[in-house]
Design brief:
The chain contains 19 helices and 30 strands. It is α/β, with parallel strands linked by helices and 620 residues long. The strands form 6 sheets. The chain has an 8-stranded mixed beta sheet. The chain has a 7-stranded mixed beta sheet with strand order 7-6-5-3-4-8-9, sandwiched between helices. Strands 16, 17, 20, 21, 22 and 23 form a 6-stranded antiparallel beta sheet that branches. The longest helix is centred in the N-terminal third of the chain and has 23 residues. The chain starts with a helix and ends in a 6-residue tail after the last helix. The model has no long low-confidence stretch (mean pLDDT 91). Keywords: Cell membrane, Fatty acid metabolism, Ligase, Lipid metabolism, Lipid transport, Membrane, Nucleotide-binding, Signal, Transmembrane, Transmembrane helix, Transport. InterPro entries: AMP-bd_C, AMP-bd_C_sf, AMP-binding_CS, AMP-dep_synth/lig_dom, ANL_N_sf.
Length: 620
Amino acid sequence: MSICLTVLVGLAILCLSLLGTLSPYFGEDCAYILRSVRLGARLVKYKRVKPFYSLLDRFLDAARAHPAKTFVHFEGREYSYGEVDKRSNQVARALQADARLKEGDAVALFLGNEPCFVWTWLGLAKLGCPAALLNFNIRSKSLLHCFSCCGAKVLIVSPELQDAVEEVLPMLREQGIAVYILSDSCGVQGINSLSDKISRASDEPLSRDLRANVTIRSTALYIYTSGTTGLPKAAVVTHERVWAASFLQAACGITADDVFYINLPMYHSAGFLIGMAGAIERGMTVILKRKFSASQFWDDCRKYNVTVMQYIGETMRYLCNTPKKDNEKDHKVRIAIGNGVRTDIWSEFLDRFGDIKVRELYAATEGNIGFINYTSKIGAVGRINFVHRFFFPYTLIKFNIEREEPVRNSEGLCVEAATGETGLLVGRITQRSPFVGYAGNTQQTEKKRLYDVLKKGDMYFNTGDLLRFDHENFVYFQDRVGDTFRWKGENVATSEVADILTMSRCILEANVYGVKVQGHEGRIGMATVTLKEGKDFDCSDAYKQVVNYLPAYARPRFIRIQPCLELTGTFKMKKVKLVEEGFNPAHIGDPLYFLDPEKKSYIPMTEEIYGAIAAREIKL
């Protein structure tokens, strides 16, 4: 018997060894699939349980289980789970009394990264009110547009952003939007102080009946994403989506004992859903920063015993560009979770800062399909496995970049891309993987739906992204299609930038696109413009328009002057050739200009400037 047992054990070890050789990621695949199945089972349970168990309930359980545990650490001050719970009760009661908020009323948050963001959102959740998370960089027309999307009638703003609100205050008042500022007093008519009312409110728990009708399919958040309309689109984030996004930390092996470092803006899904919501789901401690600082990053990690960091591609690059120090590997960071890091930067980051497990993601706020690279494979954004594909069906289809449309066969169906071939990622829309769309924008919602993909009558979500699956089942991001490009971790809508440029008294038309810059992630803004008859290019006026109306990341750094813009047969502006030609004055005969912040104007683009950019002597 013992001989048989020994033989069986030996065969088992041999099989596992052979399997490990033939499939080196077998162990990681199994661990990830098991985690995913467990998390999927939890989500099914939350869908069925009554009353509905939300992420707020998860927070309340954590506050009861360990009220003294630090939830948020911010600028030298610690806020425990119990304290944040009580503050959110006060926020809810103050808004209930003064703003007459009730279940289902949307409220817009115009706040930076600070603890009040967290307890204000929790307070709204206790009232059953969805929150619209506004990008604090937006101004004027874009800011007003955000209210028409989500229907919010209340705006909560931080004192630092009061000037931006005052610019549009008359229009907000016309629309009946009540504005509250998080300060004890405010002398501006039409802006109500809120902090004084919060401090006087009771911190006693609120009745669950106030959110009795909230379900897993109810709207929890509106998160704004740039699109081809040129104005922000409000992606509808349901409670189901909040849960799914919060599970990403657990899927990466993060536990309640970890310490999570958030320096990405919380108006984004990365900072709020993956970061803050994920921390609540885990019951962990968060180190919250107003913004990313490369010089302070590792000192913070050492000071606060950070074990999990969040990143975008630019974050990694900035850290790699800091001066080298002897203690670079002296930290406790074990996992980095994020997206958009270049392969060379990824490798350099690991060489300099140690064995950190980089968990690169691919996802979209409004999308129904995402990937995660749970292995140590550098460069991949995810990995295909049968469980994932069964529950969230997706495929890659061939895409005509010039015509910006899928390739279809004689039957009118899309053609699947072969392994190793770049294709457009689409996710099948089902009850299990829904696409809710954009609030107040049925046209843009419909544009993201793709019909008759693999069979007549089916419907898929069009991600607008080109990916590639390799022979080892890894997923690689290739590029974006359409009218949006990404720079400094932000999506830039080309038509919004074009609208601003044509406000300049000399510009007739503008074709905006993103171009590659050596050594930088994403694409930087460039515009090819035509001038009004009899007008010369007014450098200072063009500069004034883009600086006054666009955030820094959206401002076109290069402008090219042409006598006319090339159009397609359907009168769309052609961009492919312009993108390929870039901004090298040695290869372009048209007049070229460069946005120079120091001179506060556009200046003629020279080969010397081009060389300085390539040598990274000019900061972009």
